[in-house]
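Field log, afternoon session.

UNIT: design team B
ACTIVITY: writing a sequence onto a fixed backbone
BACKBONE:
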């Protein structure tokens, strides 16, 4: 038996309103995909692809033009209340009332969801995001990273089974990024389905077990991360030889061949049309003896560039 999806997006279209009779931006062109329960799901795409639009539709901030969406089995239009209760969303933009303390921010949010005082988890949540010592500080005095963590706690106040983070690590330093990854992993290990958008491909490759890529409002890939990385068609091999290269080594099967050091050639080839062995044989045919070979495994970045054409 398989679980129903945590989120189902079905043919969602969004056209923003235009100004002065001009046609508005078509930000989503009929996007469909499911987010399975229990994992960490990555929504990737270049700037302007439509990621935030999609997430803001789920949170109710943006009204879709057509299509439908379900959160935890609840239709976002027909069963809005239940759908909203099933998801916690950390928006891309940080917005806080600067005069509330972290504790008050969480208590207010608990009140907003109608959670009785005795059942609120404000202290526990502050501890989970390592902000217990900032319990009574004004929000405006928190660092950017602390605010981001407070927003995560705020999104979890009503204990939703799904947490969505829109660009959680954009503009944060490496140390904080690692902290946030740990927090995300911990929440996921505790059973929360996590969805995050990011344009750090390394982050997606590291954290997410499944990835959807959107580009210009269209879904262009959706696969388990391993499979997606495996889609990279181009491979790179570095060959060191026994004498200086006299000139470029031109071969039909090479996508690119660059002399990077006098005796080192970096060759990009398509693994569908050539094997590494054939690549080396070609170099030898040019009269060079091979001394050393290293290969670089393709990563998510290679696939992303291949699919979106983004550099
Ligand atoms: P992403 O989050 O992937 O960077 P967005 O969803 O923010 O992309 O934006 C998708 C497209 O919709 C962009 O072209 C953006 O300029 C446009 N857009 C976003 N918000 C609005 C809005 N409120 N009004 C009009 N156009 C918008
Ligand atoms: Mg965005």
């Amino acid at each position: 038996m398989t679980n129903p999806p945590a989120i189902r997006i079905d043919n969602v279209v969004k056209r923003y309103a235009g100004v002065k009779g001009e046609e508005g931006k078509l930000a989503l062109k009929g996007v469909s995909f499911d987010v399975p329960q229990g994992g960490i799901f990555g929504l990737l795409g270049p700037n302007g692809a439509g990621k935030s639009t999609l997430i803001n539709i789920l949170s109710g901030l943006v009204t879709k033009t057509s299509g439908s969406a379900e959160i935890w089995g609840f239709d976002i239009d027909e069963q809005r209340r239940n759908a909203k209760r099933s998801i916690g969303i950390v928006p891309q933009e940080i917005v806080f009332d600067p005069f509330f303390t972290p504790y008050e921010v969480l208590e207010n949010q608990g009140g907003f969801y109608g959670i009785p005082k005795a059942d609120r988890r404000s202290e526990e949540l502050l501890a989970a995001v390592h902000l217990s010592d900032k319990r009574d500080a004004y929000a405006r005095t928190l660092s950017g990273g602390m605010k981001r963590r407070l927003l995560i706690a705020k999104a979890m106040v009503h204990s939703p089974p799904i947490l969505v983070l829109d660009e959680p690590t954009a503009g944060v330093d490496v140390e904080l990024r690692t902290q946030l990854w740990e927090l995300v992993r911990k929440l996921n290990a505790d059973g929360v389905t996590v969805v995050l958008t990011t344009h750090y491909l390394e982050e997606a490759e590291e954290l997410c077990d499944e990835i959807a890529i959107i580009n210009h409002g269209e879904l262009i890939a959706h696969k388990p991360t391993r499979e997606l990385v495996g889609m990279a068609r181009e491979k790179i091999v570095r060959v060191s030889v026994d004498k200086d290269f006299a000139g470029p080594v031109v071969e039909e099967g090479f996508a690119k061949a660059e002399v990077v050091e006098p005796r080192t050639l970096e060759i990009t080839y398509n693994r569908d049309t050539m094997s590494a062995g054939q690549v080396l044989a070609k170099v030898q045919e040019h009269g060079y003896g091979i001394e050393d070979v290293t290969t670089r495994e393709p990563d998510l970045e290679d696939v992303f560039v291949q699919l979106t054409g983004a550099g």
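LOG NOTE: The domain at 234-308 is CATH 3.30.70.1560 (Alpha-Beta Plaits).
NEXT ACTIVITY: expression trials, pending approval
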